[in-house]
Specification:
Helix content: 25-40%
Number of domains: 1
CATH architecture: 3-Layer(aba) Sandwich
Number of strands: 10
CATH class: Alpha Beta
Strand content: 25-35%
Distance between the termini: 17 Å
Shape: globular
Structural class: alpha/beta
Largest sheet: 8 strands, mixed
Radius of gyration: 16 Å
Bound molecules: NADP nicotinamide-adenine-dinucleotide phosphate
Length: 181
Amino acid sequence: MKFNAIMAVAQNGVIGNQGKLPWPRIDADMKKFRDLTMGHPVIMGSSTLFGMGRELPGRPNIVMTRNPEKLENYVQEKGFRNTFVVSSIDQLKHLLEEMKHKWGEESWFIGGAEIYNLALRHNLIDQFYVTRIYQDFEGDVSFDIVDMKDSDGEQIWELVTSENLPENVPPLSFEIYNKLK
Ligand SMILES: NC(=O)c1ccc[n+]([C@@H]2O[C@H](COP(=O)([O-])OP(=O)(O)OC[C@H]3O[C@@H](n4cnc5c(N)ncnc54)[C@H](OP(=O)(O)O)[C@@H]3O)[C@@H](O)[C@H]2O)c1
């Protein structure tokens, strides 16, 4: 099983605002997200699903919660047909194992901050795809990996590629980080 993660972060470090993305739609980032995750299971926290209010098409949507009953009811009310509810990493791995004949071995943690942190604590993520947005936005959830250090003060993530889109409004760069250890 291979786990990647993907996120977009503003210059001031925010990734979320009042349950939604802090910025108005950024087509280049949406396309990148879609191209990378399409056809693979995506794993998110319940706040991210509630904020989207819809399921992402063409991919199994796996949603993490400590209150599966509430989320199952929401999924049923909304008529989501490709959304799966799990409440632990063990359940997540079990579900992905069952899905792999159809959806393959690669899956994506798509946020938010609580779910990235949970995946990092379990040492699951090999590669992190980060869209940097060179503008500040108002937000109430912040997250980044760029300066993360281990208990010995060593850098955890290495930037391996960076593609700049200076002409985009707002300017962006698409970065890929590999886990160093
Ligand atoms: N910029 C980006 O790339 C990006 C990506 C994704 C999301 N976002 C934004 O980030 C914000 C949401 O982030 P967030 O950190 O507040 O929430 P989140 O990670 O989306 O979801 C948090 C929820 O996940 C569940 N959860 C957390 N730890 C768990 C565990 N150990 N076991 C089982 N379930 C667990 C809990 O659900 P229950 O409360 O149901 O128990 C918790 O309330 C939104 O504004 C969203 O739009 C941004």
